[in-house]
């Protein structure tokens, strides 16, 4: 982690307007959820602040960052530009600021798709992205309520919502998203009373 003031300056050179406001919103919401669930609030704030740092880059530039990573992607991934910026941002942070904290990198990388076996920080950033105070979509209050009850339930609800939209639009669904859905569905099926 670089000092938060330095990260703020970097984020401000790559994002502006509502994207910047959203990033601060996610940072604050992530810190709040971190306190609630026993994660480091400063780390959560930091990851939230930089999670969308590549969001305003061109698709070509995002792809260039993705290709600098050794992580293999399937065809479905490359058919969905909206999910690229998380994977691009992980590469960007690793290279540009020398980020070595794998949990932060994974939280940024998988915030657009989720993945099986997400860490607490990953679930916090994934959820905070959809529950920060500036968000406004039909199910937002349901997701906010779930986020205060169980992150696993919140993540599953968000994945269902996102998958439903993809299926409705005949989009292919990438591997990480499918594996995330199956993982969180199994958690719910195996232990519906689980709270974390
Ligand atoms: Fe994002
Ligand atoms: Fe975001």
Q: Can you put this structure into words, describing what you see?
A:
- By secondary structure, this protein is mostly helical.
- The protein is 67% helix and 0% strand.
- It starts with a helix and ends in a 6-residue tail after the last helix.
- It has helices at residues 4-14, 17-37, 41-50, 59-67, 75-78, 84-96, 102-109, 120-131, 140-149, 151-168, 175-190.
- It binds fe (ii) ion (2 copies).
Properties at a glance:
Hypothetical protein af1432; single chain; mainly alpha; 196 residues; binds fe (ii) ion
Give the topology.
Blueprint: H1 4-14, H2 17-37, H3 41-50, H4 59-67, H5 75-78, H6 84-96, H7 102-109, H8 120-131, H9 140-149, H10 151-168, H11 175-190
Helix pairs in contact: 2-3, 2-8, 3-7, 3-8, 4-6, 6-7, 7-8, 8-9, 8-10, 9-10, 10-11
The structure holds fe (ii) ion (FE2) (2 copies).
One fe (ii) ion (FE2) binds next to helix 6.
């Amino acid at each position: 982690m670089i000092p938060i003031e330095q990260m703020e300056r970097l984020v401000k050179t790559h994002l502006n307007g509502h994207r910047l406001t959203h990033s601060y919103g996610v940072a604050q919401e992530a810190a709040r959820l971190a306190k609630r669930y026993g994660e480091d609030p400063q780390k959560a704030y930091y990851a939230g602040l930089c999670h969308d740092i590549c969001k305003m880059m061109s698709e070509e530039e995002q792809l260039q960052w993705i290709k600098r990573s050794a992580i293999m992607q399937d065809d479905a991934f490359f058919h969905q530009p909206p999910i690229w910026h998380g994977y691009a941002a992980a590469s960007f942070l690793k290279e540009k600021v020398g980020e070595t904290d794998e949990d932060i990198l994974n939280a940024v990388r998988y915030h657009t798709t989720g993945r099986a076996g997400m860490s607490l920080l990953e679930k916090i950033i994934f959820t905070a992205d959809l529950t920060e105070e500036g968000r406004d979509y039909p199910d937002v209050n349901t997701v906010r309520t779930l986020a205060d009850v169980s992150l696993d339930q919140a993540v599953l609800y968000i994945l269902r919502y996102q998958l439903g939209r993809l299926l409705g639009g005949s989009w292919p669904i990438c591997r990480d998203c499918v594996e995330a859905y199956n993982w969180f569905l199994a958690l719910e099926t195996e232990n519906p009373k689980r709270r974390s």
